[in-house]
């Protein structure tokens, strides 16, 4: 069956469920005539209450959370021994013992150690400690923390009904702290959270997080069968028992660019397995979108993208970072999405026969259709996150500003921001812009909050590049790149909402023909090239194209006939704005391809690639031969390489000891140059 | 083991039994048959077309004693008496004539049903509604020449147009089948069947074999699109035990005999087959073979495939049978396995040689209460592991336990009610069992007395390890009695907007709990989605244990008030439940068979190639689809 056919089915089945699905697919808006009129939930500021009453009393409140109906209560340590004694883990232990000729006891010991390293030990005391300190910190850092209450109510019902998996977006370390804080506030069962093992390197803090419900996974353990078995069983045991909601990040790591990262499938397939094996009746997947008006780590991210290594997680680093407490980070919006029933998603799609023919405790490689299903679900969840992500007015300002460097008239900026607001809403973007707030105020407050990025000088808005003039050329480029990358982090939040119509616009410009087929073929090429840059549901290129066209038609930018697509007279503004919005990516990718085709030898390692491109682009910027600062972003560089590998333009070869990527450039991917 | 004990018990009881058998044989008048056997190698009495041999429990005119629009005997049914209390009528069952004081409340509580809201079935069959017979006159002439008894009477035809699926009964009560048999024939022996099949081939007719009519798989329904004359071949008059071989402990029996008659007649000679499916009062030996039946006491006696030694079947290609009556042979795939489960698609089973056992010396019921279903299943698993399962061991879940409780008759004396109270107090208060969670296993032991007692102790010891408490013989016995009576309940439910059915599966041990939970939950969920107003009654029991798994039986019923097309809704939910069973690693059927109801899952169940293998057998044996009931394939 073709991918798109499956995808279509995937969506059509998910539409059937009554309570469990929300506007799932990116192309459902085709049928949904008025996207802007979509009923959005009301937000509630949870800090308001905290500012009025005692934090201590709040931390000591009677906490009797709502729990899963089938829960058999047990202590964190009891879970560990259940996992250790489970048939699944015992089977792997015996296997390994046989293969390595060692006594099972030794391997069992090893498993125990893994469990001790991994396992959480949630304690109410620590939770209360966090409740207290986080109240203090959050009030200091943020103006408001807004939550859709209806989402919390839906979550409350879901938690009682079936095991729940929380899938928040990941932009900041604040994400998981905030989410636990939120669940505590609403008297819901606290989640157990899959955290990177790096946190354990932090003295005290690592242990504190463990007691607040974090469990730790190594960054890579593909080859370690024992680790995999113990880890998977640990997660599944908690899920089956309905011990607590399980929380992890589909994106795997914090997105440094505020664009949603392509999903990782490992943990998702683990939490789905109990349902495939019918050990649970159903599992709820809850997409959660957390957006920050100003991201705590914004400058750190920019440095990282430019190749200044990320500081290791350490307690002293955390203490040093406390100076940010005096800063203002604006508002956080948390949108808890409609719980999605895994059963509904899977209905009619999965052949369970393979699971019926092997004992359930044997480790089993998922079949191809299961893998495809897991991937589809992962993308679907990310698209839901994107759909519900609240966008602040500042995001619009940043997008306009980046197209009008070095300076833009303040009034013009306001005008364009308002125009962009309308366009964003037409495309289904979720902008939090209070009805009574005038545009000037909104833009002004954004500028105030982000004074480190932009400022108002003589009625013009310019990037805040204080001190750039002095210093060597290299230093100027670096500093400028920092600000631009920071600024683009905010514009990026718009991109996934804009990507389909924008790629159509780009394709129209590229094709120089109005024939639908040709435009589609360019669109499809762009979609493939940017497959790691933006989130596309796998295999539905045509649907994406149609949606893009539909949205452009909706804002009168294009007209379509049976065979042709052409821009309308007044549509050229929209089309050129959209293509300008994505130009940094087009140009960036072109630079990267140029580097690959001209500057590299036959083969290179992945390690050499990023610094290589960076130097190449850096030199061009110094010479003034390009203005594409964003091509310095290591994120873009990696995405471009990944896409080329996927398209077969670059081959990846593993050689002993280290990964080697061999480059052999083929024409189609390069035609972007 | 019981057999050896009985055999070595000494010559005198055995010879006494033989005498008894001879006497009873005289009384039944079978020497006539025996005499003919001596005269001709192919015996067939009743050449004159007069009614068959030994009068069975069910007459040729079934409607004389059986309900035409429901389950079982006319005189046996649940009613609400003038006081509004539930009562079971008739004298055939232990429950007969008893008042069930708490039953009404249970129905109201469980289904949200009320005695005020009643639906009534048509009082009798309306002959005018019955589709006119499509009959081939030449065939009728040929048929008359054979002197085989036949009928074109509307009642006779309708009675053989259905089994006991919910939708079939519903049609009887409120509508009419689109297609029913055109002629009913009653062969009285193998040769008659041979003649009928020959005629059917000659005139290109469709034959649908009919045994006891207890099918719950739509197997007896006539395909609507069948244009040929449909002949219902009623085997009920082929009901003699042809011979008993005490040396090899086998009996050759005509396939139309029904369970209760077979056991009754064998017991006169001191034997039994031990095959007791829940339908044994009505279902026939041939039907058991055709559907791969399973009996309650299979732990001692085996399922039908373990019991059968030899089968004779008449097919359009001719007669299929083996050349000897041996316990096992290695001659390629066992042809019996093409026949068992063929569901009337290949031919008519006419004679079966079946294993027999001496009647058990001693029978004892028992029951065990477990704190919850999980513990109960764990106990059954352990019993199966130790291979010490009694003749029957069943575990009912809490809902079914409460249901059984609601069917408790009024107690005779204050003393018994006091005792009941004490028992309840002990279990719930002293032992801390939650009456809304606990579940009950019922047991039946059989064999010689000493060994039964020993066996009983072994099983109770295991049960104790799983937190089980012995709950008395009486509860056990009532449990088994209810099995027979429970089938009558649907008719009562139908009167009060409650429809329901049972279905079954087999499943590996490690998936039993998950399957039970998920299927019940699925049913509840589907009901909700389909707009069923009251939570359904959805309950299960583990009815058979095997080395590698168990048989699970579900009951499912709901109040359909407010739903315009209840049967359709019911069928959709049942279908969803079956999908759930399959997704949980359960089988399509353990013993009910496939019929037409579960055909759609056959490919998934046995693979394309598997289905092709069965098809090719059908094509060879019956190329013109004479046996055109469209079951299975």
From TrEMBL, chain A:
Q: Which GO terms describe its molecular function?
A: glycerol-3-phosphate O-acyltransferase activity; glycerone-phosphate O-acyltransferase activity
Give UniProt keywords alphabetically.
Acetylation, Acyltransferase, Membrane, Peroxisome, Phosphoprotein, Transferase
**What is the membrane topology here?**
Peripheral membrane protein
Q: In which pathway does it act?
A: Membrane lipid metabolism; glycerophospholipid metabolism; Phospholipid metabolism; Lipid metabolism
**In its keyword annotation, does this UniProt entry include Membrane?**
yes
* One GO-annotated biological process of the protein: phospholipid biosynthetic process
EC no.? 2.3.1.42
**InterPro entries recorded:** DHAPAT, GPAT/DHAPAT, GPAT/DHAPAT_C, GPAT/DHAPAT_LPLAT, Plipid/glycerol_acylTrfase
Q: Which GO terms describe its cellular component?
A: mitochondrial membrane; peroxisomal membrane
Q: What does this protein do?
A: Dihydroxyacetonephosphate acyltransferase catalyzing the first step in the biosynthesis of plasmalogens, a subset of phospholipids that differ from other glycerolipids by having an alkyl chain attached through a vinyl ether linkage at the sn-1 position of the glycerol backbone, and which unique physical properties have an impact on various aspects of cell signaling and membrane biology.
Subunit field text: Part of a heterotrimeric complex composed of GNPAT, AGPS and a modified form of GNPAT.
| Protein name listed in UniProt | Dihydroxyacetone phosphate acyltransferase
TrEMBL record, chain B:
Q: Which organism is it from?
A: Phasianus colchicus (Common pheasant)
Q: What is its EC number?
A: 2.5.1.26
One Gene Ontology cellular component term attached to this UniProt record is: peroxisomal membrane
- Name of the protein in its database record: Alkylglycerone-phosphate synthase
Residues binding FAD are 209-215, 291-294, 343-349
Describe the function of this protein.
Catalyzes the exchange of an acyl for a long-chain alkyl group and the formation of the ether bond in the biosynthesis of ether phospholipids.
Checking Pfam families in the record gives: FAD-oxidase_C, FAD_binding_4
The pathway this protein participates in, as annotated, is: Glycerolipid metabolism; ether lipid biosynthesis; Lipid metabolism
Q: Per UniProt, where does substrate bind?
A: 490
- Necessary cofactors: FAD
Query: What catalytic activity does the UniProt entry give for this protein?
Result: 1-hexadecanoylglycerone 3-phosphate + a long-chain fatty acid = a 1-acylglycerone 3-phosphate + hexadecanoate; a long chain fatty alcohol + a 1-acylglycerone 3-phosphate = a 1-O-alkylglycerone 3-phosphate + a long-chain fatty acid + H(+); hexadecan-1-ol + 1-hexadecanoylglycerone 3-phosphate = 1-O-hexadecylglycerone 3-phosphate + hexadecanoate + H(+)
InterPro entries with a match to the protein in the record: Alkyl-DHAP_Synthase, FAD-bd_oxidored_4_C, FAD-bd_PCMH, FAD-bd_PCMH-like_sf, FAD-bd_PCMH_sub1, FAD-bd_PCMH_sub2, FAD-linked_Oxase-like_C, Oxid_FAD_bind_N
Give me the segments passing through the membrane: none
GO molecular function, one example?
A: alkylglycerone-phosphate synthase activity
GO terms for biological process, alphabetical: ether lipid biosynthetic process
| PANTHER family documented for this protein | ALKYLDIHYDROXYACETONEPHOSPHATE SYNTHASE, PEROXISOMAL (PTHR46568)
The subcellular localization recorded is: Peroxisome membrane
Q: Where is this region: Disordered?
A: 27-59
Where does this protein chiefly localize?
A: membrane
